[in-house]
Design goal:
heterotrimer; A alpha/beta (424); B alpha/beta (273); C mainly alpha (222); A: 424 residues; alpha/beta; Immunoglobulin-like; Rossmann fold; 3 domains; five-stranded antiparallel beta sheet; 14 strands; 45% helix; C: 222 residues; mainly alpha; two-stranded antiparallel ribbon; 79% helix
C-alpha cells in the first residue's frame, strides 16, 4: 500500500515538473523578457543640486531609430515610466553644466530624472521624508523595429549638495572683488585720493542757502524705490548731508515718502542729522511724511505740495520711473532750483531737461563718499574704477579670442570661454 | 519782432496744453484712419512664437500694470489673450501689482466668452502676490507652494488645466505686460535661470531700454506701446483699442516734433538778428 | 546706547549679509528654507512699517486740520477717501466682481481709481510737450545728433511717420523702422550696456560697503 502511495506521489511530482519544464513556445517570447546588457548605462546624482534630480546616461547607438523607455523604481518591483526618448535626441552635452564639473566631451544619451515630478511628491514632503537621500533604481526598455528588450538595473542616491560648483566662476569674481576691496580700503588713509568735481553735489549748499534766504522750504523726494535699491540707499545718505545743512542754516525741509521702510529709515537719518548739527530742538516729527504706495497718487501728492508751498529747492534723488517728469516739470514751473539724481537711465533725459543739475548713475553712488570725504568711502570708489577697468580689458580680450576661435572653427575654445562667462 | 519772438519762446505752457488737448480729442471724435504699414520685429517675433506653440500648451500672462499705463498696455494684453485663445492655448493670468485686479477682471469678463473658453479649463487667474522674487523663485520648483489657491480662494490644483502643471518646466512661455521694471525680474530670474522663453509688452518710453535683452535673445519678443498693440491686433485680425488710439498717437507725436523744430527756428532767428 | 544703536545693527547686517550671499552658492534645501524665512520676515517688517506710515499720514493731516493751514480741506478728504474705500473693500469682501457682477469695490476701482490714475499718467504727455518746446535747444553738434535720433524714434513710433518718410526718403531704399531698429540695437544698446555694467559694479561695491559696515548712511550716522 505504502509503495503504491509512494509511486502515486512520485508520478504526481514528475508530471507536475514536466509541466514546469520549458516547452517549445507556441507563440513568440514576450519582448520584455529579452534581457540585455546596455553598454555604459549608469545613474548619477545630479551634481550641485538640492537633491531632487539624477542623471541617467548610456552609450549612443548607431541605430538612430531606437526608442528608449526610461523606467524608474524605488523598490525594484513597481516600475514607473518616466518618458520615451529617441536615440541621440538628448545627450550629456545638452546638460547645462560647466566643463569643470561635467565632462562635456563625452557624447552619451542622457536623461535628467526629476524625482518629485516623476513620483508626484510634494516639495515639503520630499525634503522631510528623504532628507538623507533618495535611492532610485532605473532601467531602460530599448525598442527597435524588431524587438523590445530590457536593460540591466542601475541605482544611485540623490543627495542635496552644500556647494553649487557650477557657480564657481561667479564666486571667484566675488572673492576677487572683495580682495581688491579690502586691499584698497585698508590702504585708504595712506594717501589722498582724487575725486573729480560733481557739480550737482556742490550745488547743495547753494540750494539750501537759497531756501534760507527766501524763507521757503526745501522738498526732498527720495523716489519710489525700496530700501533694497542701491539708489535709495545713496539717496538716504545724501538726505543725511542735506538734513545737516538744513539744520545748520535753520531752514525748513519736507520729505514725502512712497515706501514705509524708507520713511522709517529717513526719519532716523534726519533726526541724527539735526543732532550732529547741534540743533535737536529744531527737529520736528512731520519733516518726513508717508504719502502712499501708489506711484501716481504719490506723484500727485508731491506735485500738490510743490504747487502750494512753492519751495526754494527740490531734490529728486533715488529710484524714479514715469513720475520723474511729473515732479521735475512742476518743480521747474514753481521756480525752484532743482537737483536730481538717478540710476534709471531712461528717466535721465527728463531730469536733464527739467532740472538744473543731474547726477547720472554712478555719480549718485559716489555722493556719499564725495560729501563726507571719508577716506574709506572714497577708496571704495576706486574699487569701482578698478572693477570697470578690469571688465573693459577682460571683455575686450575675450571678445577678440572668441571672434578668432569661432572664425577658426575651434568650437571647444569658444564653448569653454562661454562656459566661464555664463552665470547659472 | 525780437520781442514777439522772445514772447513766443516763453509762451504760457497752458496754450501748449490746449493745443495738445485738441490734437488728441479731434482724431478720437473723428478718426482719420492712418494705420500701421509695417510690423516691428519685436511684435512679429512675439506673434510668431505664440503662433508656433502647439495646441494645449500653457502660457503665463503676467499683467503687471495698473490703470495709469492701461491705455498703452491693456490693448496689448487683450491682443495676447485673444491670440492665445484662438490658438487653444491655456493661460495662467497673474499679477504683482495690487492695482491691476480690476483690469484683469475686465479682460476675463469680456474676452474668454468670445472664444467659448471656460474658467479652470482654459484659463485661471492667480491672486495678487506682493513678494515678487519669492514667487518667481518658488514657481521654479512648485507653483502650488506659493499659489495654493486662485483669486477666488478655490484650490488651484483642482482645476482641470492645472492637473499637468507643476513648475516652469510645464510652461511654454511667459509674457509680461508691464509699465514697471518687473520685466527685468522675469528675464533674469525666470528666463535666464530656468530657460523659460520670456516675452514682454512695455510702454513706448521704456521700449528702448530693452535693446540689450532683445539682442541677446534673453527676450524672445517685445511689444512697445500703443503702436505695438495696434500691430499685434493687425496680425491677429482683431482691431481693438490699440488700433483706434493710433490716430491720436500720430497727431500728438507730430505736434511734439513740430514744437521742437519751431522753437529752434525761433531761437535761430533770434540769434541771427 | 552705542551697543543698541550701532553694534547690534551692524552685527545683524554683517551676519545676514554674509548668509544671504552664501545662500546663492548653497543649493541645499536648508539654504532655500533660509531664504523663504528671510522673505517672511521682510514681509512682517514691511507690514509694521506700513502701519507706522499710515499713522504718520494721519498724524500729519490731523496737524494740518488742527492748525487750519492752507488747503486743510484736502486733509479732510484724506480721511474721507480712506474710509470710503475701506468700507467698499469690507462690504465687497475684497473682490472686484462676484459671479460676473461688479461689486462696490469694483465700481470704485473702475470709476474712481482707474480714471484718477490714468489722468496722472496722461499729464505726462502735456509735460513732455511743454518740456520739448522750452528745453530742447539744438545748441551744439551733440544736441543736433540727439535731435536727429529723437526725431527718427518718434517718427518710427507712428504710422504717419512711416508715410512721411516714404514720401520724402523712399529713394534711400531704407525704411524708418530699419533706422529706428539700428538706433535701438546699436548705439543705444551699447550705451545701455556700459551703464548696466557700471551700475552692477557699483551695486556690488555698495553691498560690500554695507555688509562690512563701512557705509552706514542708511542707519543714521553715529
Amino acid at each position: 500500500m505504502i509503495r503504491k502511495i509512494k509511486f502515486f506521489l512520485i508520478s504526481v511530482f514528475i508530471i507536475s515538473n514536466i509541466n514546469a519544464l520549458p516547452s517549445k513556445p507556441k507563440k513568440q517570447v514576450e519582448p520584455q523578457n529579452v534581457k540585455i546588457e546596455l553598454p555604459g548605462l549608469e545613474l548619477l546624482d545630479y551634481p550641485s543640486d538640492r537633491g531632487d534630480s539624477l542623471i541617467l546616461k548610456w552609450d549612443t547607438n548607431d541605430d538612430k531609430d531606437l526608442i528608449y523607455e526610461i523606467m524608474v523604481s524605488t523598490d525594484e518591483k513597481n516600475w514607473k515610466k518616466v518618458k520615451e526618448q529617441k536615440e541621440g535626441s538628448f545627450t550629456s552635452q545638452n546638460i547645462d553644466l560647466p566643463f569643470w564639473i561635467w565632462n562635456k566631451k563625452e557624447n552619451k544619451n542622457a536623461c535628467v530624472i526629476e524625482i518629485m515630478k516623476v513620483f508626484n511628491i510634494q516639495e515639503e514632503e520630499f525634503f522631510k521624508e528623504y532628507s538623507n537621500g533618495f535611492k532610485l533604481y532605473a532601467k531602460l526598455n530599448v525598442i527597435s523595429k524588431k524587438q523590445k528588450s530590457e536593460s540591466q538595473t542601475v541605482s544611485a542616491i540623490a543627495i542635496g549638495n552644500w556647494f553649487r560648483a557650477d557657480r564657481l566662476n561667479s564666486l571667484i569674481i566675488v572673492l576677487l572683488v572683495s580682495l581688491v576691496f579690502f586691499m584698497v580700503v585698508s590702504h585708504a588713509k595712506k594717501r589722498e585720493l582724487f575725486i573729480r568735481r560733481i557739480a550737482g553735489l556742490d550745488a547743495i549748499d547753494e540750494a539750501v542757502g537759497r531756501a534760507t534766504e527766501m524763507g521757503k522750504p526745501v522738498i526732498y523726494v527720495p523716489g519710489i524705490g525700496s530700501m533694497s535699491n542701491i539708489s535709495t540707499i545713496a539717496s538716504v545718505f545724501i538726505l543725511g548731508e542735506v538734513g545737516k545743512k538744513i539744520a545748520q542754516y535753520d531752514a525748513n525741509i519736507k520729505v514725502p515718502h512712497y515706501d514705509p521702510i524708507v520713511f522709517t529709515v529717513a526719519k532716523e537719518t534726519i533726526k541724527q542729522a539735526y543732532i550732529e548739527a547741534e540743533r535737536p530742538d529744531s527737529y520736528r516729527d512731520d519733516i518726513n511724511m508717508f504719502i502712499t504706495q501708489d506711484q501716481f497718487a504719490y506723484a500727485a501728492a508731491v506735485d500738490g505740495m510743490i504747487t502750494r508751498e512753492k519751495p526754494a529747492a527740490c531734490f529728486y534723488m533715488g529710484y524714479f520711473m514715469a513720475e520723474s517728469l511729473l515732479l521735475a516739470e512742476v518743480g521747474a514751473s514753481a521756480g525752484a532750483i532743482q537737483i536730481a539724481g538717478t540710476d534709471i537711465d531712461h528717466q535721465l533725459p527728463f531730469f536733464v531737461t527739467a532740472c538744473d543739475y543731474t547726477l547720472i548713475g554712478e555719480e549718485l553712488y559716489a555722493a556719499g563718499a564725495y560729501l563726507s570725504k571719508e577716506p574709506m568711502l572714497v577708496s571704495a570708489l576706486k574699487v569701482q574704477d578698478f572693477g570697470k577697468l578690469f571688465f573693459i580689458i577682460f571683455a575686450a580680450l575675450l571678445s577678440i579670442v572668441l571672434v578668432i576661435s569661432s572664425k577658426a572653427g575651434a568650437i571647444n575654445i569658444t564653448n569653454t570661454i562661454l562656459d566661464i562667462l555664463k552665470v547659472r | 519782432m525780437k520781442e514777439t519772438l522772445n514772447k513766443l519762446l516763453k509762451i504760457d505752457r497752458r496754450w501748449l496744453f490746449l493745443l495738445l488737448t485738441f490734437s488728441i480729442l479731434i482724431p478720437i471724435i473723428k478718426p482719420i484712419g492712418i494705420s500701421s504699414k509695417s510690423i516691428s520685429s519685436g511684435v512679429q517675433d512675439t506673434y510668431n512664437f505664440i503662433e508656433k506653440l502647439p495646441e494645449g500648451s500653457t502660457i503665463i500672462l503676467s499683467m503687471d500694470y495698473d490703470p495709469s499705463t492701461a491705455p498703452e498696455l491693456h490693448p496689448q494684453s487683450a491682443a495676447i489673450l485673444k491670440h492665445a485663445f484662438k490658438k487653444n492655448l491655456k493661460v495662467i493670468i497673474m499679477t504683482f501689482l495690487a492695482g491691476s485686479g480690476g483690469l484683469i477682471d475686465e479682460h476675463i469678463r469680456n474676452i474668454p466668452q468670445q472664444y467659448g473658453k471656460e474658467y479652470g479649463k482654459d484659463y485661471v487667474v492667480l491672486p495678487y502676490m506682493p513678494n515678487v522674487l519669492a514667487a518667481l523663485t518658488q514657481m521654479s520648483s512648485d507653483i502650488y507652494a506659493i499659489y495654493d489657491k486662485d483669486k477666488d480662494d478655490k484650490i488651484l490644483k483642482n482645476f482641470e488645466m492645472m492637473k499637468k502643471i507643476k513648475n516652469y518646466k510645464d510652461i511654454s512661455a511667459v509674457i509680461d505686460i508691464t509699465g514697471t521694471a518687473l520685466l527685468d525680474s522675469w528675464i533674469v530670474f525666470v528666463g535666464d535661470k530656468y530657460g523659460v522663453p520670456v516675452m514682454g509688452g512695455v510702454t513706448a518710453i521704456s521700449q528702448v531700454g530693452y535693446g540689450p535683452y532683445l539682442q541677446k535673445k534673453q527676450l524672445k519678443g517685445l511689444i512697445g506701446g500703443m503702436k505695438g498693440a495696434a500691430e499685434y491686433e493687425r496680425l491677429i485680425s482683431e482691431p481693438g483699442k490699440g488700433t483706434s488710439g493710433i490716430d491720436a498717437l500720430n497727431i500728438a507725436h507730430l505736434l511734439v516734433i513740430l514744437f521742437i523744430i519751431f522753437s529752434n527756428i525761433v531761437l535761430l532767428i533770434l540769434k541771427l538778428s | 546706547m552705542n551697543l543698541i544703536k550701532k553694534h547690534i545693527p551692524l552685527a545683524i547686517v554683517f551676519v545676514f549679509g554674509i548668509m544671504t550671499l552664501a545662500s546663492y552658492y548653497v543649493p541645499h534645501r536648508k539654504s532655500e528654507n533660509y531664504l523663504e524665512w528671510i522673505n517672511i520676515w521682510q514681509n512682517i517688517v514691511a507690514a509694521f512699517a506700513l502701519f507706522l506710515g499710515a499713522i504718520s499720514l494721519f498724524y500729519a493731516h490731523y496737524k494740518k486740520i488742527e492748525r487750519k493751514v492752507d488747503g486743510w480741506g484736502y486733509s479732510l478728504f484724506v480721511y474721507f477717501g480712506f474710509l470710503v474705500i475701506m468700507v467698499a473693500a469690507i462690504v465687497s469682501d475684497g473682490k472686484i466682481s462676484d459671479n460676473g457682477k461688479i461689486t462696490f469695490l469694483g465700481w470704485s476701482f473702475n470709476n474712481i481709481y482707474n480714471p484718477l490714475s490714468a489722468t496722472m499718467f496722461s499729464v505726462l504727455a502735456f509735460f513732455i510737450i511743454s518740456t520739448a518746446y522750452r528745453s530742447f535747444r539744438i545748441k551744439s553738434f551733440p544736441a543736433f545728433l540727439l535731435f536727429i535720433a529723437g526725431l527718427v524714434l518718434m517718427l518710427g513710433n507712428i504710422p504717419l511717420g512711416e508715410i512721411i518718410w516714404d514720401k520724402l526718403f523712399a529713394w534711400t531704399n531704407t525704411t524708418i523702422a530699419d533706422i529706428k531698429n539700428w538706433i535701438i540695437s546699436v548705439p543705444s544698446t551699447a550705451g545701455k550696456r556700459g551703464i548696466m555694467i557700471g551700475i552692477a559694479i557699483g551695486a556690488a561695491v555698495t553691498s560690500l560697503k554695507i555688509i562690512f559696515g563701512i557705509e552706514r548712511g542708511y542707519m543714521g550716522k553715529d
